[in-house]
Amino acid sequence: MPARPDYATFIARHAEVVERINSGEAGLPILGVLLRLAQEALGSAGMTFAEYGPTGGRIVAATGDAEWALGRPVDKDSPVSKRLLTGLRTQVISLDRIEGKFPDQATGHGLHTMLVTRVILGGLVIGSLQSFYREVEDLPTIEHHTLIEFVAINLAHMYGHQAGLPVHGDGPVVAALADGLAIIDFDRKVRLWNPAAEAVTGLSTADVLNATLPFPIPVLGQTLDHRLADGRWLKITASELTGTVDSVVVTFRDISDQHRREGDRDLFVALTSHELRTPVTVIKGYADTLNSHWDELPEYERRHATDVIGQRAGELAKLVDRLLSAADQSGPSAGSPPTPFDLVESLRVAERDLPTALRRRLLVRLPVELPKAVGDRSTITTILTELVTNADKYSIDGTAIELTAQSDERTVVFRVSDRGIGVRPEHVERAFDRFWQAESGDRRRYPGAGLGLYLVRRVIERQNGWVSLRPREGGGTVAEVRLPRG
């Protein structure tokens, strides 16, 4: 580790980052650029950034020797997370002196020391920034502390503008902790604006005091759902202020999650009808033909019709299972408890179960053996089928899809790589959202319900593993699954 950060490089390249932001770049691509710049200036082996939501976090950007952690979920209630969230804002931690899966995995990759700081916006923690070092002798200096805190301020500023951030979900970075309350006069001028109102709307007291209320008022005694300009929804109520003749109490709270769930339900119904229509139509058509013209059809046409009905019925059964799993908030069944198993053997069995067309495209490059993985062996066929199907859908005909596997000190990994259209950096996390599609409308080039990757992530994380996507060098996409090593 250098005795001092490389300020000259940081200042010069930071100006480039600002120029890229000013030119319209945002979200994960800029996060990655900023982390690589910070890694170089801090002299670290790798960097990670964990984005926090209301219930948990996830590492959404990683560089250098910490790239293996990309996509890993973060438990905000773990002892390590609690220490980071409640202790000093910036801390130096020896990873081999603390317990937990993440420290154990990090030390397994040769990382010894972690310099970590919280990313804070509006007094609330929205994420954490980690810089990793291999050296045992040197420790980060106060100058390293200052520089990583400056980078964290940059990240908070990016989140404040909500340009492609947060990565997961829409609207504010944090949910309101209580109802907002405002008192307005007969001119709709705000006379009181409580702290919760600031948290709900992002508008400070100075912004709104003596100004017109920034959203409509419902009829007294009734409620109104109102959508803000940033896409969030408020439920607003109004009533007279007791003891006055010209003041109204307005209360409001963020109901974006409720609207999002309702939208998911409507989308689920729409996708169900859309995705079921094709196989049902084909089955009905062939069944009607057989029923009406059985004696007229030659034997080979009967066999072809029954084969198609069987194939479409199988597709229909799988689709229904996926739709029901996605509709269930508890996710797919947990299956068997995690146990050691031979991943290479399981992948070869799963490869043989793939449809013929997929097997012909798949180029299998598996080692003779790997250390045991810990997880649910019965899910590997489902996981591989979903990943290969996804790669096939977005790849040009005739290009190969590669299946590879390896291990490191703490995890066993397999990857499905294609030479398809690729994935944009800002979409590598959104692709795991339920029902999310890169395209919308009736003229989408790539059919599907947007459930495969969502289900893969749910299944893998039940086994204490994680899955991530990244653009492939030279074009295409790499889907990477990591399971604990036995």
UniProtKB/TrEMBL annotation:
PROSITE patterns: HIS_KIN. GO terms for biological process: cellular response to phosphate starvation. Gene3D superfamilies: 1.10.287.130, Histidine kinase-like ATPase, C-terminal domain, PAS domain. One of its GO terms (cellular component) is plasma membrane. GO terms for molecular function: phosphoprotein phosphatase activity; phosphorelay sensor kinase activity. InterPro entries: BphY/WalK/GraS-like (IPR050351), HATPase_C_sf (IPR036890), HATPase_dom (IPR003594), His_kinase_dom (IPR005467), HisK_dim/P_dom (IPR003661), HisK_dim/P_sf (IPR036097), PAS-like_dom_sf (IPR035965), Sig_transdc_His_kin-like_C (IPR004358). The keyword Zinc-finger does not apply. Pfam families: HATPase_c, HisKA. It is found in: Cell membrane. The keyword rRNA processing does not apply. Keywords: Kinase, Phosphoprotein, Transferase, Two-component regulatory system. Residues 271-486 form the Histidine kinase domain. Its EC number is 2.7.13.3. It catalyses: ATP + protein L-histidine = ADP + protein N-phospho-L-histidine. Its main location: membrane. It is an enzyme of class 2 (transferase). This is Sensor-like histidine kinase SenX3. It comes from Asanoa hainanensis.
